[in-house]
Sequence to fold (195 residues):
Amino acid sequence: MEEYLLHLIAKYHELTYPVVLAWTFIEGETVVILCGAMAKKLEINVELLALSAFVGSFLGDQFFFYLGRRYGAPMLDRWPKLEHKIEWAFHLVKDHPILFILSFRFIYGIRNLAPFVIGISGVSRTKYLILNFIAAQVWAHSFAWGGAWLGRTLDRWLGDNKWYVMLGFFGLAFLVGAFGHIRHRLKNRQLAPCE
Fold:
């Protein structure tokens, strides 16, 4: 597996940054951390990785902000299952707008929803643009350089076995997320009124 992944990245090295940019338009912590962790071995420039992650994240969140600003309320009616997250995000935007805009990228489960809610909430375009720019920079550099640090540390501790540990870690994270999702769906099914 490791050899195949390394071969793909080595062969299509020039596509690393555009793929990261496109991926982070919607999401992307995992891809930024993995690319950061492989930076030394695959000669990925961590600063270019951070720049790609920043541009993708910034543009994606600006897009969802304007989407919320333009089509907000009618679109929310289509997602009644998200009502709890949406209400929670609205309260945070109302009570602590600056802190929420600077930190929502780091809160699991609301990254894609938050800019949309912020757009609906009436935060000014200029304020959001400036705070989003700052937050995207911090986020991108944190995950890119954090991944690079993780890769170097695991390399020192585990050598060639680090890839198995990393894949195991991400596999475990996926299983925990899937378990949480299934549990949440079962809970919602039990709470739903019988027809």
